[in-house]
Batch of 3 targets.
Target 1
Amino acid sequence: MTGIEEAEAQLSEIELLTSMFPSQNEFNIRDQLALAELREYVEGRTDYLPSSRPEFVIHQKMDTEDLKGVTVAISCTYVVDYPNVLPDISVRCPELSRAQQARLHADMNAHLKENCCGEVCMLSAVEWIKDNAHLYITKNPAAQGLQRVSTETPPVEVFTRLWIYSHHIYNKVKRKNILEWSSDLGLSGFCMPGKPGIVCVEGPQASCEEFWARVKVLTWKRIMIRHREDIPLHSQSGGEGNVTSLRRFSGFEEAMFDPHGNRGNHMDLGQLYQYLNERGCGEVFQLYFGIEGR
């Protein structure tokens, strides 16, 4: 299969999925620009194979009796050689532990490699997940005869705030991912693009760790967690309310502070300090830059 044939197969699959899942709540294309570039290439309006790869999410409700009310999010990012090579597919669901998720991914990919080699596979992936998700997701242990008396201490809920440092954040796709992933995971905070790049996310610990897991695997010159705050909630009542009260940021935003320099990629650090200080985070400035803010 040639490059243009692969691109045609990718576009045809997206158009089929769009017709099968007409609601944005069911099928959401994350990068419309990548889709537009793919269409231009297939239609011969450009000779260049798009560098951006289409990404989308299918939200699938489970209809088996033991998983009523459970929805899984099936994320897909095409690779250049798809369908000759499997795309990057991940399945996310609150009822899936990390171990269950790993097993599901391994078994699903093995099934797709055996049955969909050289062919588009997303409908097969969706059908496999609908048929097999109950083997990995434990929504109601009692209903499955798994209930037992436990003497273990209940897990401690933790509120987390991650302060992430990057050598730079220029790329528009990365910036878009950061905004979308923070929204998907219910996190608040901010992203300051430019050089250096700074990201703060706050919320439930599992959501913050999932955000970091997604971000760190992107291509970076340098990225690291500069500082981490973990606040146990077990001694406080009403866990969700406490998460809300501990937030320093009301939502997540991309924050720009008087961009300047030859490429407009440097920010006014004095304004950054004021921004942090107004939210009770002024002490973090010294952790990033080694000097006290003013």
Note: The chain has two domains: 3-140, 158-289.
Target 2
Amino acid sequence: MSRFRFRGAALALLLAATAACQRGALQPTAQLTNTAQPMTAAQPADPKVEAVVAPYRLKVKQQMDEVIGHAPEAIRKNPGESPLANFAGDIQRERAARELGQGIDLGVMTNGGLRAELPAGNITTGSIFELMPFENELVVLDAPASVVQQLFNFAAPIHMAVSGATYTATPDGKPTDIRIGKEPFDPAKDRTYSIAISDYLASGGDKLEFFRPLPPRHTNVLLRTAFSDYVRQLTKEGKPVTAKAEGRVHF
């Protein structure tokens, strides 16, 4: 059973249990007795439980199987500049700008923050859940130049791209010729840069500890929702879903 199917079944069971509670079907007992039995793969399912769960499982499966877009080729993540991370970072900047009504300088997504690749062919709602299975929110950080420098210091040794910027990584892993929005970046300049990022990475996840002291501005949009909405909009416009490594990092 794939990770997605397991998650879908668990969600269906949770929905069923919730519905039962609301109907009053689940009542507390005065005393708990140890009636636990060992579970085996051969143990048959309880027909009564299956009858309750089945409609929810079907509903979840129908939702997850909905085709929302088409990719001519798989959008993958790889060491260095990643097509999938470029895809995610660009969507983050675009959606954060729309939600907050202002331009966003940078978008940050690490390969570790993306749990699966987008397949070639039909992209379903389930594909997006596989890509982003967590309830991560899109937030915006307002970072001083010193923190932005730390971001590129982190990115350069692994040739990680940053949406909205280009730079050169030296052989010893130092960032040079950093350009943000085509403007040269000066770490000594007294300026604040806006960064669209997940709340997980903003809190220091994936070794981005230098972001932790910065208070996030909330968009109240899940990353998963931002990705799904973007794919749906492309489909509405008759466009395929594509992304590529396009030389944001030079070395």
Note: The chain has seven helices and ten strands.
Target 3
Amino acid sequence: MVLDPQLIWNGLVVGSIISVAALGLTLIFGILNFINIAYGDYMAAGAYVAWAVNAQVGLPIGVAIVAGILFMSIGSVVLDKLVFQHFRTRSPITLLIVSIGVAFFIRNLLRAIWGPSGHFYELPMEANPSFLGIRFSVEQVAIIVVSLLLLLGVYVMLRRTRIGIAMRAASDDRMLSRIRGVDTEKLVLYVWLIGGAIAGLSGIMLGLDAQIRPNMGFTALIAIFAAVILGGIGDPKGAVAGGYFIGLAQEVSVAVIPSEYKFGVGLVALIIGLLTRPDGLFGEATR
């Protein structure tokens, strides 16, 4: 069997989206030590705000993307102040349950405002070019390029900036970081700002590649969680690697299984990863 290069290209596009989303989710976990189930709905909210600015207000897609990112960045901080902050001293299970409630609230709010039907961004109609037998769109190229730039930017931030170094230190030992003078409350603010912005961007990328629906983020959570856990919970570079692996595995699997079953590939990869690499791809999972 000859592998269709189109499937590899599709896998890179999907992997880019999953990697960006997984990076934001794992950054939040590294500092706050809980899996935010509402993260997928943060993605959907960012996508919807960008669509509203683009399709309903009539502004260019670039302006709409910035609006969606800013909205979710600030919105994640507001949700933390209104909800999560009051449960931060509770167990991670309590925060997990609270995040499920937040997820249902956001999803149904989106459905109440914009309805259950799908939407698309208002983009210029262009023929999809092809190269070496691979048909691609400008939006797909933009998704890959933007994701690589973002991943590089976050890597540099974590390695070279004071905020990034403080994030890494707090992820390893939050109590010790506080003793050493790190303002952990301000760090939590930065994490929500950055994590919310990444959620908004990944949701917009998902909307550009597929369709904007209230449950779009929830549907993507399976692959995102698989990437985070496969890469090692709390390990940013592992989440990115896991995201590309899951994206490629899902799309390439279409060559041998019906496309409606490709989302189960992420679960299979997750199970195999937990059995063979329980500490993540790079052995740096947060305990």
Note: Strands lie at 130-131, 134-135.
